[in-house]
Every structure is written in C-alpha cells, then in structure tokens.
Design brief:
7-stranded antiparallel β-sheet; 6-stranded parallel β-sheet; 18 strands
Length: 386
C-alpha cells in the first residue's frame, strides 16, 4: 500500500484535521453557516530568512475553483515578508473551512521548496543550478518538489515527471552505479557518449575510484572537445579540503589544454556552500537542501464575520491590502480600501492581492512555470541578503 492521498480524497475533505470536521458537524447541527473572510499569512520565516517565495497557488486553485467563494491572491512567485496576507477567501465557512489543512499544506511546503531554491539561485548568481533532490522525498510528492525547485530558480530538475510539469527536459549526468557496473570511469563515460543523444551534455562523474584530478584528465583525454564538464560528488568522509580538490582539478585540466571542461559540483550543498565555492565551480547540483527545505509556516485566520472585522487575539481584524512600491519594493499592509498610491521614495504603489475567483469563476489565467520563475529571478535582483 502507498500511503498518500489522491486528488479526489483531498477534494472530498478526507485529509483535514479532525477538529475542522467536528466544527462542521456542530455548525450544521445548529443551523449556523456565516459568511466569513479568512486570510493566509506567515508570522515569521525559518532561520530568520528576510524573505520567502510564495508557491503552491496552482494547487490551491485546483481545490477552490468549484466552490462558491471569492478569492484574492498574490501572484505565485512573489517575494513575501512576515505578516503579509498572500491569500484571502470570502464565503460561507461551511463551503471552504474543511479545506484549511490541505490549503496550508499546499502553501507551506511548496513555498518552503521554492524559497530554498531561490536562496540557492541568489547564491549561485548566473551559474547553472540543478535540483537533484527528488530521491530524498516520497515519490508521490517528488514532482511537486521539482516544480517548485524550478519556479524558485533552478535551471533544471532531474525527475522526468517534474520536468514535464514545468516544460523542460530532465537534467542529469551519470550515477556511480554506471561506473561500478562498467568497471571504470573512462569506459562508462565513453559508453555514455556513444549511446546517449548528442544534445545531452557530456558530464563525467570523476570521484568513484581514483583521485579526482587523475580521473578528470583521463576522461578529458578520452572525450576531448566532446567533454562538457566533470562532476565532483566526493563523499564527506574522503573530501578533506573540497576547495583544494577543485583547484587541483582546474589547474591540471588547464595546464593540459582542457580549459573548456567545466567543474560541476554536488553533494551536501546549500546556499552557504554555494557562496563559498562559486568562484571555483561552474555549476551546482543541490539535493536535500531544496527537497527537504523548512516549510514556510502559514496559518489561516478568520478576520471578518458577516462583514464585521473580527479576529482572534494576536491577529489584525478586517480585510487588507498589501501595497508594494514598483521602484524600491517597499511593502506595507493597510486596511482594505485605504488609499496609498505613492511610496515615500516617490514610486507608484501596487496592490499585490488581486481577485482570482468570484463565486467559482476564474477572473484571470494562471501563469506558466517559466513565467513564475522569471518573476522570482527578476525580484531576486532587488534583494541583497540571504
């Protein structure tokens, strides 16, 4: 048995916390069903992140699209900060309340993955970045991980179904298994070159048996100009000073005329290690740091009941507008309807929460993954800190 819920079970409300089911049972028994406004926001981010990337909205839409509710959302891929509502639902509570668990699950995990991918993208600058983390997650959610790794800024993803979701070809090099089965690195690399389609870049994994610089030279001599890169995935137990290993490999390749061969590194990387190595590496493969990224801890809170501002202790009641300056990205949250057109810098303020549904009718199309990714990368240019 595979222990995951399918789409229909989620739509049927079978993956909701039991206290929401008990709430529904009580309200139905008492004949109470009031119009409420609920908002989704995060009070803080993991590890003191100064910003996060909003993701998971497409799955929220799939769940909400047939409900008689009004929905306002931030554009997927928007860089957000604490206490900024990213999703607002207005309608009768019994029409959507049971989906709180699922909606939060969509937003929290997808945004966590996209945020870590964006942090790695920021650290890598313009260098290629590939998601290798599918094997670290349950296979039923691996395509979701890959999609959000891509929209967060990865150039490629390794999983076939994940790549299909975002409209790119899957990316990958070769595993240690191929080298072990074929007997040595050069034989495996030549076989890869002979069999795999020419448009796939030839990247040889050089840390299976011998010293990395020796294996780099061996495969460079074997493939010549056809070798695009060598990949170092050296285990921590044998790594020593990883920078020195990369510097040695680079030196020996350049000394013998193989300046065209790039260095692709993977294995235990995160945004900080990418920053550390980006002056001596040409590309990065990131696995667990992205696929097992800490979630963005959103919550759903009612802020209006029957059009009257009302919220629990510690929350600000009433519907809100999230205004962002188009020039400096300064963002403020104000009561819905309050006029705020000009930023202190003189730039124009733009409302980030825009209508998506009105009584189940979609008011604007959802952007494709590539457009979301471009939106993320454009915003990253305006932030300095990780």
């Amino acid at each position: 048995m595979i222990h995951t819920a399918n789409s229909q079970q989620i739509r049927d409300g079978l993956v909701t916390d039991v206290y929401f089911e008990r709430t529904r049972e009580i309200l139905e028994a008492k004949g109470i069903d009031r119009v409420v406004t609920a908002e989704f926001l995060a009070k803080d981010f993991p590890k003191g992140y100064p910003w996060a990337v909003l993701a998971g909205m497409e799955e929220c839409v799939a769940l909400l699209k047939d409900l008689p509710v009004d929905v306002r959302v931030m554009r997927e891929g928007t860089l957000i900060h604490p206490f900024q509502p990213v999703l607002e639902i207005r309608g009768k509570y019994l029409d959507f309340g049971r989906y709180e668990t699922a909606l939060l699950g969509f937003l929290c995990q997808a945004s966590g993955v996209a945020t870590m991918a964006a942090r790695c993208r920021k650290a890598a600058g313009d260098l290629p970045l590939t998601s290798f983390g599918a094997r670290r997650m349950h296979p039923a959610i691996a395509p979701m991980v890959e999609r959000n790794a891509y929209i967060g800024g990865c150039d490629g993803v390794a999983l076939g179904l994940g790549a299909k979701l975002v409209g790119v070809e899957p990316s990958g090099t070769m595993p240690h298994a191929l080298i072990l089965i074929m007997g040595d690195t050069v034989t495996a690399t030549r076989a890869f070159h002979d069999i795999i389609a020419p448009h796939v870049k030839r990247v040889s994994l050089i840390d299976t048996y011998n010293d990395e610089k020796i294996e780099a030279l061996n495969v460079a001599k074997a493939l010549g100009k056809d070798l695009y890169a060598v990949r170092l995935d050296t285990p921590k137990s044998r790594r020593g000073d990883f920078r020195k290993i990369m510097e040695e490999v680079r030196w020996e390749l350049d000394l013998r005329g193989f300046e065209h061969v790039k260095l692709f590194i993977s294995g235990g990387l995160d945004e900080y290690r990418i920053q550390e190595y980006r002056d001596c590496a040409d590309a990065f493969g990131v696995g667990t740091a992205i696929s097992a990224a800490p979630v963005i801890d959103f919550s759903m809170d009612i802020v209006e009941v029957e059009n009257k501002p009302l919220a629990k202790k510690g929350k600000r009641s009433g519907r809100k507008s999230v205004m962002r300056c188009e020039d400096c990205m300064e963002t403020v949250v104000v009561p819905r309807g309050k006029s705020l057109n000009v930023c202190s810098c003189g730039g124009k303020m733009q409302e980030l929460l825009t209508p998506l549904f009105s009584q189940g009718k979609l008011k604007m199309p959802l952007p494709p993954p590539r457009e979301i990714r471009d939106h993320v990368i454009n915003q990253l240019a305006g932030v300095e800190d990780l």
